Amino acid sequence: MDLGSLGITDIYPLSGCRWHETGGRLEVPNVKRKTVFPTKDASIVVTLHENHRIYYSSSNTEYKPFLLPPTEGDIRHAVQDYFRNKYNLELSVRPVHCKFFENNAPFVSCNAQIQKGNPIFDIYHKQKSWIFLKNTYTHIQ
Fold first, then answer.
1. Is-contact 108 69, C-beta < 8 A?
2. Domain count, the chain
3. Domain membership of residue 85 as a residue range
4. pLDDT at residue number 141
5. What is the pLDDT of residues 18-72, one digit of tens each?
6. Which of 103, 119, 141 is nearest to 54 (CA)?
7. Is 124 among the domain residues?
């Protein structure tokens, strides 16, 4: 119920206030700035995991997420196709959850989980992966 429309402005208790005298015209409207991100030019950072407990690395010596080249098409399908063709794995890829710039280069980040196939990657726990991501990509809090 809109009780505000029932008020009578002639006997409004704050009739001497500045907002009432100007009709609210001096209020600065909050305008949301639209940002443009070059998704088609962005490299794809893929965090491959199993139930967010075990993380798979693209490197044999330390934890590193998978870094895929930019794609013109759908990012999720590009990630699935890459792992299907290169490693014979079927993945469930989550939508992009982070878009950022690192050294003026655009990146998008997404998580993926293996649904079918046998991974041949080194295994790391969540803490190691989080430390690497936090130290490598400065946008992560």
1. no
2. 1
3. 39-136
4. 43
5. 877 787 788 888 888 888 899 999 999 999 998 888 899 998 888 889 999 999 9
6. 119
7. yes
